[in-house]
UniProtKB/TrEMBL annotation:
Keywords: Heme, Iron, Metal-binding, Monooxygenase, Oxidoreductase. Belongs to the cytochrome P450 family. One of its GO terms (molecular function) is monooxygenase activity. The lineage of its organism: Bacteria, Bacillati, Bacillota, Bacilli, Bacillales. This is Cytochrome P450. The keyword Cell wall biogenesis/degradation does not apply. It comes from Cytobacillus depressus. InterPro entries: Cyt_P450 (IPR001128), Cyt_P450_B (IPR002397), Cyt_P450_CS (IPR017972), Cyt_P450_sf (IPR036396). Gene3D superfamilies: Cytochrome P450 (1.10.630.10).
Length: 443
């Protein structure tokens, strides 16, 4: 049983010493009872056992300790739907700039590598207004429904091509055969990037996730920091290559260049590189995980798979139910810009906040019988899997389209699909996304 959290009235001088929480007031140290004896001490974010089946822990936390402090991470952890939605809805109080930082403190050498490489991309995910608004406006200009809808035939052709490559086999790893490459292929097509860079970008993106959201030793941090520098340089190089072309292309990147109209005061080439640096990371790693989570969940809940095979019109709501039940983005972050009360707990100004997005989808105050995967659920689109408010995921329509088409084609061509007997859950351990690294199936 988790212990009920005590309020911690904090100051900028808090520190941990000898396992006790010391609060310095007027140069005199007084010992305060710390809320570290319940969920804060039981939460093991980088433990493989926890990560294999995390939801029982979060159910307990929602019921007994919905907001708690984790001393090792130095984060306040928020688990309930209403509290998470409130934080996402108030960007003036809860800053997104914390997303520029790694979840774990980086080594001095890793910091130097990033600084020397001038890695400072500007994008909507890691900025607050007015900078967020300035960058989001041209993205909205370019990321229009018409462009997304025009992608469906291209996505279907790519999915068909991938299935054709493995359908003659007796079994296949769907991540390796399709889910790893496909989202990058779709994104490169949509953005208008030269495809010759795709393999390199995919590799660099994986490394970037490990650096920012993983638990790496210093020597690995340095290697991944070099990869982040390479990622940033390549983003700038690709933008310059397209900008220097004689004809501005009719795609997302071309729309950004037209919006810029040659004026750095409106949008610089480095601004565009920052936008794409963010989209190239967020736009395909998360979709890879969403596709993997969708198929694994459906094949585990066999009745649901059989239903969508018989009736493809159920697939759009199925994608939403996966986003609620087994979302690709497990955690997100904010920083409190002032002292604020969340769920009866005082979070101090400057407090780091870890939003357990996956927990919000299992909150029974919002979703009836949340542990049941129900593709007919009427309110499943109320999930927070794509965020909420000003920072709602700009790429949500494209991700929905991709996974819908994947499920439609797999259900049509491989209705007897099932998990292979030797299928083993392999999950990347980090404080961002959760999805299978391998997904072995047979038919």
């Amino acid at each position: 049983m988790l212990l009920q959290i005590a309020r911690l009235q904090s100051s900028k001088h808090d520190f941990i010493e000898g396992g006790k929480c010391m609060i310095l007031e007027n140069n005199a140290a007084s010992i305060s009872k710390c809320p570290f004896h319940g969920a804060g001490s039981e939460f093991k974010p980088f433990d493989q056992t926890y990560w294999a089946d995390p939801h029982p822990f979060w159910k307990n936390a929602r019921q007994n300790e919905p907001v708690f402090f984790h001393p090792e991470l130095n984060y306040w952890v928020v688990t309930r739907y209403a509290d998470i939605k409130k934080i996402l809805a108030e960007p003036a109080t809860f800053s997104s700039k914390i997303l520029k930082e790694a979840i774990r403190p980086l080594s001095q050498r890793a910091i130097e590598i990033l600084r020397e490489g001038e890695v400072n991309p500007k994008n909507t995910v890691t900025n607050d207004d007015p900078e967020h608004k300035r960058i989001r406006r041209p993205i909205n200009f370019a990321f229009v429904p018409k462009r997304v809808n025009e992608m469906e035939s291209k996505v279907r052709a790519l999915v068909t091509e991938h299935i054709d490559r493995f359908i003659h086999k007796e079994k296949a790893d769907l991540v390796a055969e399709m889910f790893f490459e496909l989202p990058a292929e779709v994104l490169f097509e949509f953005l208008g990037f030269p495809k010759k860079y795709m393999s390199e970008i995919k590799l660099l993106s994986e490394k970037r996730q490990s650096l920012k959201f993983g638990d790496l030793p210093p020597e690995e941090q340095e290697m991944e920091a070099h990869a982040a520098v390479d990622f940033w340089k390549l983003s700038k190089s690709m933008v310059k290559e397209v900008a220097d072309a004689e004809v501005t292309p009719d795609n997302f990147l071309g729309d950004l260049l037209r919006y810029r109209n040659g004026d750095d005061n409106i949008l610089s080439l480095e601004d565009i590189a920052g936008i794409l640096y963010g989209l190239l990371f967020a736009g395909h790693e998360t979709t890879t995980n969403l596709a993997g989570n969708a198929v694994r969940t459906l094949l585990t809940e066999r009745h649901a798979w059989d239903e969508i095979c018989a009736n493809s019109s159920l697939i759009p709501n199925t994608v939403e139910e996966v986003m609620r039940y087994n979302p690709p983005v497990f955690y997100w972050r904010r920083r409190a810009l002032k002292s604020v009360n969340i769920g009866g707990v005082e979070i101090p100004e400057g407090g780091n906040i870890l939003l357990v997005m996956a927990s919000s989808g299992h909150d029974d105050s919002m979703f009836e019988d949340p542990e049941t995967f129900d593709i007919h659920r009427e309110n499943t689109k109320n999930h927070l899997g794509f965020g909420f408010g000003k920072h709602f995921c700009i790429g949500a329509p494209l991700a929905r389209l991709e996974v819908r088409v994947i499920l439609e084609e797999l259900a049509k061509r491989l209705p007897n699909l099932q998990l292979s007997e030797d299928e083993v859950k392999t999950i990347s351990v980090n404080l961002f996304a959760r999805g299978p690294k391998e997904l072995w199936v047979k038919w």
